[in-house]
Amino acid sequence: MPTVRIPTSLRKLTQGREEVTAAGATVRDLLTDLEKQHPGLRTRICDDAGALRRFVNVFVRDEDVRFLQNLDTPVKEGDEVSIVPAIAGGR
After folding, report:
1. Is position 90 within any domain?
2. Dihedral pair phi/psi, residue 28, rounded to 5°
3. Can you tell me the mean pLDDT for 54-65?
């Protein structure tokens, strides 16, 4: 199963774990499995229409899924998927 890296801000939903595993052939499938294992996680990552929230980035093998096939990006055994919240800054 792919390994999913969880950002600090979402670890309260994964009992403090920074990495979890999830089953699925695509990022969408992984998010569905993650929601079954850790209720509330998907709503923090996806909007009401099911698309990635603007302030959340998801990477598969260090590639932003928005530049691949978005939520339909394939994943395979041994892949690392990272959920990275966007950070705003400035003065």
Report:
1. no
2. -60, -45
3. 96
CA–CA separation, 20 and 16 (whole Å): 10
pLDDT at 58: 97
The rounded distance, in Å, linking the Cα atoms of 72 and 9 is: 25
Check residue 86 and give its pLDDT.
Answer: 82
Overall domain count for the chain: 1
Position 91 in a domain: no
Assign residue 64 the CATH number of its domain. Answer: 3.10.20.30
For residue 60, give every residue at least 6 positions away whose Cβ sits within 8 Å of its Cβ, in sequence order, or none: 27, 68, 73, 75, 79, 80, 81
The phi and psi torsions of 22 (rounded to 5 degrees) equal -145, 150
| Residue 11 to residue 90: CA distance in whole angstroms | 26
pTM greater than 0.85: yes
